[in-house]
Amino acid sequence: MELGRFISIEGGEGAGKSTSVAFIKAYLQNQGIAVVSTREPGGTQLAEQLRQLLLNHHDEDIDPYTELLMMFAARRQHVTQVIEPALAAGKWVLCDRFTDCSYAYQGYGRKLPLDFIDQLALWIHGDTNPDLTLLLDLDIKVGMQRARQRNSLDRIESETMAFFEAARQGYLQRAQAEPQRFSIIDAAQDIAGVQKQLQEALQALLKGVA
After folding, report:
1. pTM attached to this predicted model
2. Reduced to 3 states, what is the DSSP secondary structure of residue 14?
3. Burial of 135 (0-12, 13-18, 19+ CB in 10 A)
4. Measured CA distances, 104 to 62, 131, 138, 163, 190 (Å)
5. How confident is the model at residue 182, as a pLDDT?
6. Which pLDDT does position 14 carry in this prediction?
7. How many helices (H) and strands (E) does the chain have?
8. Partner residues linked to 134 by β-bridges
C-alpha cells in the first residue's frame, strides 16, 4: 500500500490556522482522499494532557528545556499512535503544528540551541516529516490583536511581542532553508485570498502524487 502524505500547517497566534485546517480537510476529502486531522501538542489522550500542562498558567516558571522536552514527549506519543499508523494505512495526515513550531518557539523564541532540537527531532520521529508545510505568515501585531479578540490568552500566547517576532523570523528562516517543503501563505489577506493560496499549494502537491 502506498504511504499517505503528511501536511503540517504552521503560523503565529491569530494567523487563522483553525479556519485553514477546516478548509484543507474539506478540499482533500472532495478529492477522494482519506484525511486524519490532528494537532500538536495533542492528538492523543496523553498528549492532550501534556498540552494542558504546557498551555495553562502556573505559579512556577517552566524552564525552557522542560517546555521543549514536554513538547517532544507529546510529539513522540502523537507520532507513534496517530501519525505513523495513518500514513502506513495510506491516509493523509493534516497536522496543526509539528516540529517546525519547536524550532520557532523554543529555538528562536526561547533561544535554545537549534542543534539540540535537531537531535531531538531525529531521535523522536526520525524521517517522519511533513511532505508539505503551509506557513501562515502574518504581522505579529495584527495576529495578537486577532488572538486577544478570540479568547483569553494561554501561557504561551501571553509572551512578549519580541518573543513572537523572534518566532516569526524563525519560521521564515526555516522556510527559506527548505523552499521545496514550505509554502508561505500571506495570512493578511481575506479568507478567500488565503484559501486560494492554500488551494494552489495543495494542487502542486496533488500533481506530484498523481
Report:
1. 0.94
2. coil
3. buried
4. 17, 19, 14, 10, 25
5. 98
6. 86
7. 9, 5
8. 9, 183
- If DSSP states are collapsed to H, E and C, what string results for 81-116? HHHHHHHHCCCEEEEECCHHHHHHHHHHHCCCCHHH
Residues in Cβ contact with 126 at an 8 Å cutoff, skipping those fewer than 6 apart: none
The three grid cell numbers given for residue 188, joined into one nine-digit string: 493578511
Note whether 183 and 133 are within 8 A (CB): yes
Enumerate residue ranges in the chain where pLDDT < 70: 1, 209-210
Lookup result for grid cell 502537491: 205
| Residue 58: Cβ-neighbour burial (10 angstroms; 0-12, 13-18, 19+) | exposed
Q: In the prediction, which pLDDT does 1 show?
A: 63
Q: 3-class DSSP state for residue 174?
A: helix
28 SS3 class: helix
Radius of gyration of the chain (CA): 16
Tell me which residue has cell 535554545: 112
